[in-house]
Amino acid sequence: MKMGVIAGAAALAIAGFASAGFVGFEVENLGLVNGKSAWKVYAKFNSANDVVLNVFNVTGVTGSFNQADFAGGSWAPQFTSNPTEDSYVTVGGTPGFSNSTTADPNWGGSGFNQPGIPNGAGWFNNNPPNLQGKVDGNLRTLIAQFVFTSATPSVFTGTASVGFNQGLGTPTVFGNGSFTIPAPGAVALLGLAGLAGRRRRA
Predict the structure, then answer these.
(1) 6 lies in a domain?
(2) What is the pLDDT, as a whole number, of residue 185?
(3) Residue 2: inside a domain, yes or no?
(4) pTM for the complete prediction?
(5) Residue 140 CB neighbour total at 10 angstroms
(6) How far apart are CA 7 and CA 31, in angstroms?
(7) Among 163, 164, 158, which Cα is nearest to 146's?
(8) Cα–Cα distance, 65 to 43 (Å, whole number)
(9) What are the two backbone dihedrals, phi and then psi, of residue 57, each rounded to the nearest 5 degrees?
(10) In a domain, 77, yes or no
(11) Which band of pLDDT confidence, cut at 50, 70 and 90, is reported for residue 193?
């Protein structure tokens, strides 16, 4: 799968307020997956030592999200059965049973097992010594994947805060920012891709 490419162009967007090592959020367009629109959201930093601990106070996330998991509809990364088509949240790592991301209480009684993400909700790494939230080689940590049930995603601007440090024994720092899906310019690219698909079928 070619990531970040649709109609021959990558769609990346960075937005947010700098706070210590936090630069903002980065949105990556994964293109179309079996007719569905897929996107990843990363927290971006400026140090290779930064480690995300939690994401919280999330607001504004809306849409008709595709879920491909063992639970029949969950944001839990542990239950992902099809990582390319599942919508999930995480603090770094990869989806699967070993992922240590947990829903915070603001999800309510249903926790991760609900259609959307409630305003004010968040998630955290319940085993921070494993450094699952440490930035990758691009100085970013994956915090969510959104897969929409159609090729045209819902347009929304979400806001979120992140807590992070630089490993065990270091102080926790907080940053906040926003992310927009589709990333700027991506809507036009999605339209071009759909047009090209119709022309091929004609």
Answers:
(1) no
(2) 56
(3) no
(4) 0.83
(5) 22
(6) 9
(7) 158
(8) 21
(9) 55, 40
(10) yes
(11) very low
Question: Is residue 100 helix, strand or coil?
Answer: coil
Give me 149's structure tokens.
């049930």
Say what the pLDDT of residue 184 is.
Answer: 65
CA distance 83 to 7: 22
Q: Give bridge partners of residue 124 from the DSSP assignment.
A: 54, 102
CA dihedral angle for residue 62, residue 143, residue 42, residue 122, rounded to 10 degrees? 60
Enter the tokens of residue 5.
């490419």
The CA–CA distances, whole Å, from 146 to 15, 65, 122, 154, 196 equal: 18, 7, 15, 10, 24
Q: Name the helix (H) or strand (E) containing 196.
A: helix 186-201
What CATH number should be reported for the domain holding residue 42?
2.60.40
181 contacts 87 by C-beta, under 8 angstroms: no
Query: Does residue 5 lie within any of the structural domains?
Result: no
Q: Beta-strand (E) ranges in the chain?
A: 12-15, 22-33, 36-45, 51-59, 88-89, 101-103, 121-125, 140-148, 156-165, 173-181
Look at the block and give the residue holding tokens 């971006």: 44
Q: How many structural domains comprise the chain?
A: 1
Residue 53 identity (one-letter amino acid)? L
Domain range for 179: 12-201
3-state SS class at 103: strand
